[in-house]
Every structure is written in C-alpha cells, then in structure tokens.
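Collaborator request, handled under Task 6.
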Amino acid sequence: MKILLTTLNSKYIHTALSLRYLKSYCEDTFENLEIQEYTINHQTDYILGEIHKGKFDVVCFSCYIWNMNQTLSIVSNLKKINPNVIVVLGGPEVSFDAVELMKRESGVDYVICGEGEETFKELVGFFMYNEKTVENIKGIVYRSKEKIYKNEERALIDDLGKIPSPFTENLEEYDNKIIYYESSRGCPYNCRYCLSSTIKGVRFFPLERVKKDVSIFLKNKVKQVKFVDRTFNVKKSHSLEIMKYIKENDNGITNFHFEITADLTDDETLDFLSTVREGLFQFEIGVQSTNDQTIKSVDRNVNFDKLSEVVKKVSDFKNIHLHLDLIAGLPYETYEIFKKSFDDVYNLRPEQLQLGFLKLLKGSGIRKDEELHGYAYKAEAPYEVLKNKYISYDELLKLKMIEEMVDYYYNSSQFKHSVEYIIGNFYNSPFNFYEEVANYWEKAGHHQLSHPKQAFYKILLDFYREEGFEGVELFEEILKFDYLMQSKTSLPNFFTTIEIDHIQQSIHKFLHEEENINKYLLSYKGMQVKKIMKKVHFEVFNYDIITSINNSYKIDVQPLKTVILFDYDKERKIFSKSKYHKVKLN
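Structure tokens returned to the collaborator:
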C-alpha cells in the first residue's frame, strides 16, 4: 500500500513540519510513506496530475486556511479519476467541523482531528493490516456505508520525546527554504482569536533533543530556522538554555526566529541577548492592541509598559530584528482607537510592524462571540473580518491601504531616513502620515498598478511636493541618500546629480591612500583599487545629510557640498544594505 502525505504551502520557501512528524512517527513500522509538497501558486491541475501519477492508495492532505479551497478541489477531482483512492484530511482547518465538512464533501473518507501522530499511526495500521477496528481509533471522523461517525477525542501526547525527530544529518531538501521547528507545543495564554487557546497547557520537547536538532541545522548552515512555539520564552530555563546553545555553536550564518512575550523577558535574559551576534536572532512580539478594553475582551494578558521597556532595551543592542504585530478588527477598537495602538507600537521603531486583520478561525473563542460584537466576516477561508460594531468596512479598507504603505515605506527599510524626516517635521502622528500617503496613492490611482523600485521614491517625492512641505531640496537629498543605501546603482533622472571637477581622479587618489583604506574600508585592505570601485560608491550632496540625520532630521540645515562614501560589503547586510562615511576628496 502506497501512502502520500501532502500539502499546499503558502510559499515555495516554506516547509510543512506536520507532514514530517507524521512520517517520522510511523516509518519505523510502515514503509511506502512518501511526502510531496506543493504551493498555492501551483495550478491545481498540475498538482492533481502529479498525485495521480504516483498511483497512491491513500492520499493525506494537511489543511490550513490558505490552502483549504484548492485542497478540496483537488480531492473532488482525484475521486472522480480514482473512486477507490482513500482521502484523509488533517490539520487545524478541518479539526473543528469535520462532520459538517464530510457531509458537504463526499470525496473525504477520514478526518484526523487535533494532534495527529498517534491517530495517524493507528489509522495506517488499520489500512495496511486491519489493526484495531476503525470504531476504536480515537481522534477521527470517518465515513462508512454513506454514514458519518465521530469517534472519541484523543488525549494529547504527554511525552513529546516519544516523537522521533524528522531532521536527519542530510538537509538537502531544505536548500533555499525555511526550516520550521518547535521546541514546545501549546500556549500559556487563552487569546480568543487564536486556536492555541483550544489546547490547555504547554508541553516541552526534551532539551537534549532540541540541541541535537539545532546542531544539525548549524552544521548544515541553513539560512533560517523559524521556531513555531506559540510563546517560546514561557519557560525561561528552557528558552534561555536553547538560545545559549545556539550562541555557543553559532556558525555565523543561520538566523533563528522566535515568537516571544516581551514582558516575560527578565534582566538575565536581556544581559545575555546583548551579547549575541548581530542577525543571529529575530523576535516576533504580538502586541495586537494597546487598548485595555480590547485586550481584556480577548483574554490577552499584555503589560504594554513592560513590553515597551523590553523592546527599547533590545533595540538599543542593535543586534536583533524585532517584529511587532497589530491586529485590526478586534472588539471595542474603533478606527481612532486603532490609530492610537498603531502610534504606540510605531513609536517603538521595530524593524517590522506587521499589520494584520482579524480572522475568525473555526474553533476560536472570538468566533463564538460573533453576535455579541456584530461581526460580519468572509464565509470562506481565511474568514477575515469585514466589519463589526466598532469599525466599518470602509474603515477597514482604509487600513488595508495603510498596511500597504507601511510595507512599502517602513517594512521595506528602504526609506528609513526620508520617512523619519517627513514624520519628524510635519506630523505629530505616524498614523496620520501613512493615512495621507494612502489617500494620495488612491487618488492618483497608484494602487491599481505594479511599480518598479524607482517609482516608490518618485511617488514619495511627488507626495512631498503635492503637500507643499518646505525644505524640498533637503528632502530630495535625504531621499537620494536612502536610495543609494540600498545598492550600488545609477541614480534615476528625477534625482539631482551634483558634479565636482575631476571627481574620478580624486576618488582614485582617495582609494590609493592607505590611511583612507584603514579608516573607512579596512575589509578591502590589500585589494586592487579597480576591485574596490565595484563595491563602493561616492556621491556628492548639496547638504550635509549626515548632520541632518544625527540632529533628528532638522529642516533648517544650510547647503554645504558633502561627499558620502557608500560601502556595499555583502558581509555587513543585516540591519542596513550598506555602511556610509562622510569623506573629503582632494
């Protein structure tokens, strides 16, 4: 009997941890278990054809909000081609309404509800050897003689160490992909918008098992490992030990991403974090809202003052990327209240501000409260909010456009100084700036088109002029500075280029002087000048941009010709794409 484990990931770089767990839990007992992964960007006809070519007896799909509709389409057509194939579904998107789903979808034979390893192993034993009877397999819903039956729920696995690691010494299949990993299951919190609230308690994988897996990742020099623990630092002795192990064995390449709760981070942990390599860790922190009534209504426990204190300290270390999350559409949060939440979080200046929209997930507490808060939401996955008692669809549409502006002009890190210059000089609220830029984009029809990189700079410059802000010449220079920070490239013609007599001769003379190399470009010491020229750029500015930046973007800077050296050494691209130095050319 041939069995396929498959799913549609949301991106090519993603990998399905769940499939690998199922296979590793069973492969010591059963053969002919195969994993195939696709993405939601593949044509369903292509996926259908590839699965059919495998001539599998059982096909098992891992189901999520991003792939459910395509999965069901594939299942329906797969059954038309081969009515005898057994179809099994599992995952969070089918665990909470399995009976109703099977009534609607005649092609589904079995649904595994909840944690899948033990259930899947018993089900495969039933398929292959008639081990147990189907009625005695806990945690499944199944079809028999046109009737649907729901069996008793299965208890969670107490000892996660029983689950064999799916990671071997050879990680070729993860080339250019993200490795998803977990060191614990469950969450200590009961946020009503999250499915983790449906499972009580937190269970941990043995530390030695985690260290062994991490050592494999480091040995293979994978690019990124993303821990999917819902609250990685819930148990300090566990999380700190893992992070210390990573630091001690750091390969200088691999980045580790964790979801943490900032207000659980104590001084000992902060002291440790201050010592790690730049780019080794990346933290995602769910703020969601800073409105007390909203936070209480979703049973979330966040001390924003403590969170802010920790975020500011970690930011000062200049070594860890911080991603802070907000959710629009939560109870009691009007458009104006959301604006305050946005400003509160934005003013912490994380590397990424991720603005999401509430999804009323199956099984979540907030979905049970939909009438209380007047929720209207999409009937199909991902069940995103359309409106509620506190915020209208028109207002959510505005926030959608603002989200795009935040991605373009903040999260991209390509406009760091120019956006800070505008907000610092002309706005008392960051939200107001992004709101006005969003209005400008829509009015001009920019949202209806795709744009090359250069266009975003031109549009921001046009916006500045349209608003009639003073100091346009200085702003253009700061915008040009941001543009040149990204990569060694020629300037588009909407930027003013300042010429200096014999500049090329002066640049060559500068690079031939050992004193300058030692002071500004030490990593290029001993390299031929013509090779250095391929890695650096000299640009003349009409203003002393560096002084303006260092003086909180003061607008009353007087014109002063300044030469800036940009260094695009690839080894340094963690928090910025280049280094820069104010220099003098003779």
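The cover message to the collaborator said: "The first strand starts at residue 3 and ends at 9. The mean pLDDT is 94. Please let us know whether this matches your experimental observations."
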